[in-house]
C-alpha cells in the first residue's frame, strides 16, 4: 500500500498507534487513500496508483510528508450503480484586488472505479472559523441515497469545541442545509445523528437527530457531559456519556437513530461498533467484545467467557457475518451473530476488508499490505 495509508500511524513494533480510522476506503479491488492535500486511487491488484486528485480551489492548508502522521478522515464511497468516492479538503484561496485571502472547503467527487473527477463543490467556511487558531478538521460522515453529510470542526484535543455540519445533494451539487454547533456522527434510518450544543464553548451536549434531506429536527435527548456518539448499524447509534449533574454516573446506551428511543440501556463500554452488513453489530476496543442485534440492540454474545474458557480477541474488522481478530493463538474469525469460532482461521486479521481485498499490517510490521480476499 502507498505510504500515505499508514504514515505516522504504525509503531516500531508493528501495531497501530491510535484508534483513529485508517484514512482508506475500499471499493472492489481499489483502495482510496486520503490525506489532507490529496486523494490516491490505488489499484491493489497491480500496486499502481490510477489517479492522484488534489484540490483546485486553492492551496491545501496542510501537506502530508513521509513519516508525518496522516490525520485525514477516511473518504466515503457512495451507494448505487455508479458510485463516487468523496473526499473533502481545506484550502486557502489567494486574495485578488481588494479581496483578502480566505479559507474554504472543497468537496471532490470522483468515479470510484476510474478515479476520474466528476465534480467539485466549494463550501464557504462559517464565521466562527475566523476566531480559531488551531487547525480545523473536515470529514465526510457518510452518505445515503443522493445526500452526503460533511462536518467541519475545531477540536481541543479530541473534543469538538466548534463545528458546522452540511448536508449536500450529490445530484444538484448544492448544500441542502447546514447546522452550526452540531457535530454529526452517523447517518442511520434517514436521520443525521450527532451532538448538538447551545454554544461552541458549552461543556454539555445533547444527542440530536435531523432529517437527512430537510434538516428538520426529528428528535433531541437530554443534556450530557462528555457525550460521545458512534455508528452502530443501519438504525442504531452507540452512546457514551456522563450525567450532567454527576460526572461519576455514566450512560452506555444504544439509541434508535430514527426516534432517539433507548434500545439497550446497559450496553458494553466500547470505542468502536461495527455493523456486519447482515444482522449484527459488534462492539469492541475494550473488553468485552460484544455482539448486538442490529435491529433491537439486544446483546447476543460476549467475550471473554470464563465458563467456556474463551478469551476475547482483539477485533480488527467486521464484515458480512464475520468478526476478524487476533489472540495469542493467532488470527481468528468468529460468527458475528453467535460469537462462535469459525472452523477455518483467516490467514490475516484485516483492518479493512471487502469481497475482493483485505488490508492489514504486513508480517514485518513496517508497512501495510493489501491481500486478495477469500470473499
How would you portray this structure in words?
The chain has 375 residues and is mainly beta. It is built from no helices and 31 strands. It has strands at residues 24-27, 30-34, 39-43, 48-53, 59-60, 76-77, 84-93, 102-111, 117-124, 136-144, 147-156, 159-169, 174-180, 182-188, 191-196, 204-211, 217-220, 224-231, 236-243, 250-256, 262-264, 272-275, 280-284, 289-293, 299-303, 314-319, 322-327, 330-335, 352-353, 357-361, 368-372. The strands form seven sheets. Strands 14, 15, 16, 17, 18, 19, 20 and 21 form an eight-stranded antiparallel β-sheet that branches. Strands 5, 6, 7, 8 and 9 form a five-stranded antiparallel β-sheet that branches. Strand 20 (250-256) and strand 21 (262-264) form a beta hairpin. It is globular and about 75 Å long. The protein starts with 23 loop residues before the first strand and ends with a strand.
Summarize the structure.
The chain is an all-beta fold and 375 residues long. It has strands at 24-27, 30-34, 39-43, 48-53, 59-60, 76-77, 84-93, 102-111, 117-124, 136-144, 147-156, 159-169, 174-180, 182-188, 191-196, 204-211, 217-220, 224-231, 236-243, 250-256, 262-264, 272-275, 280-284, 289-293, 299-303, 314-319, 322-327, 330-335, 352-353, 357-361, 368-372. Strand 23 and strand 24 form a beta hairpin.
